[in-house]
């Protein structure tokens, strides 16, 4: 997908066109999934984070700027979701450890 074509899809996405969203998902799906899988090393978690990445895109669609990098937006979102995932996992682990010590 060329930059000009991508800008058009972003403009259409800002108007809530589902077909534009589908094309963007299709274009970025594999690269973001591989990025997430490398970071979390778990297919199910990577799929969940991928889905959440695209949900965030849809939720942010009206604030997107077609002059800014959509790729950067998506990968930054994916990276932040990964950090949130690990933070949550750490909290869960600490809770379990504390519960085990209290037994």
- pLDDT below 50 for ≥5 consecutive residues: which ranges? none
Shape field:
elongated
How far the N terminus sits from the C terminus, by CA atoms, comes to 57 Å
Q: Helix segment count?
A: 4
Return the structural class: mainly alpha
| Portion in beta strands | under 5%
Q: How many whole angstroms does the radius of gyration measure?
A: 17 Å
Q: Which range best describes the helical content: under 10%, 10-25%, 25-40%, 40-55%, 55-70% or over 70%?
A: over 70%
Mean pLDDT: 92
Features:
103 residues; 83% helix; mainly alpha; elongated
Explain this structure to me?
There is one protein chain. This protein is 83% helix and 0% strand. It is built from 4 helices and no strands. The relative contact order is 0.12.
What's a quick, concise take on this entry?
By secondary structure, this protein is mainly α. 83% of the residues lie in helices and 0% in strands. Helix 2 packs antiparallel against helix 3 and helix 2 packs across helix 4.
Topology:
Layout (H helix, E strand, L loop, with lengths): L2 H12 L3 H23 L2 H18 L9 H32 L2
Helix pairs in contact: 1-2, 2-3, 2-4, 3-4
């Amino acid at each position: 997908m060329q930059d000009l074509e991508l800008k058009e899809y972003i403009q259409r996405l800002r108007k809530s066109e589902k077909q534009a969203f589908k094309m963007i998902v299709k274009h970025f799906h594999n690269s973001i999934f591989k990025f997430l899988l490398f970071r979390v090393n778990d297919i199910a978690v990577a799929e969940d984070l991928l889905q959440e990445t695209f949900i965030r895109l849809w939720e942010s669609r009206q604030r997107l700027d077609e002059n800014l990098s959509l790729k950067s937006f998506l990968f930054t979102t994916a990276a932040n979701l990964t950090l949130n995932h690990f933070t949550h996992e750490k909290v869960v682990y600490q809770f379990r450890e504390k519960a085990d010590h209290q037994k």
